[in-house]
Amino acid sequence: MIYLGADHAGFRLKEQIKKYLHDQKLEFQDLGNLKLEKNDDYPEYGYRVAKAVAGNKDSKGILICGTSYGICIVANKVKGTRAVSINNVREAKFSREHNDANILCLSGWDNSVIKVKKIIKAWLNTKFSTHPRHHRRVYQIKKIEDKEFSARG
How confident is the model at residue 153 (pLDDT cuts 50, 70, 90)? Predict the structure, then answer.
């Protein structure tokens, strides 16, 4: 399952991504915003998608806001998510191979649909590396999360 979310600055791109995922016969769910609202805020949609991804190990998320940075920050507040702000195919591949990223964050202001389709295709089709150093590092991230979330208790 691929969960989608966007604020007003990413809404149009999200709608185009939905068409692309449908054409690729990929299962997705739109977690909002479901209509264009010029005064909505990205934290709500970033959180919804991050919670859905964290609760479903085999899922991924795609989030869009103006720059991609704010919504990425929100997503990374949820334990179990590894959200990345991506600008090109190379970064998309590395984020999956090296970091096992499970949420892709995109700029609604600075991306064309053609570019985004290439990024999404690369990101979805790239597997996490089998190299021990990458697994070791993701494990270290999980240990940091465990400490941080238990300290908040």
Answer: low
- Say whether pLDDT at 108 is over 70: yes
pLDDT at 3 over 80: yes
In this structure, what token pair is assigned to residue 42? 């990205």
pTM for this entry = 0.95
**Catalytic annotation, residues:** 65, 98
- CB-based contact 3:58 (threshold 8 Å): no
Q: How far is it, in rounded angstroms, from Cα 117 to Cα 111?
A: 10
Contact 64, 10 (CB under 8 A): yes
Give the chain's domain count: 1
CATH number at residue 21: 3.40.1400.10
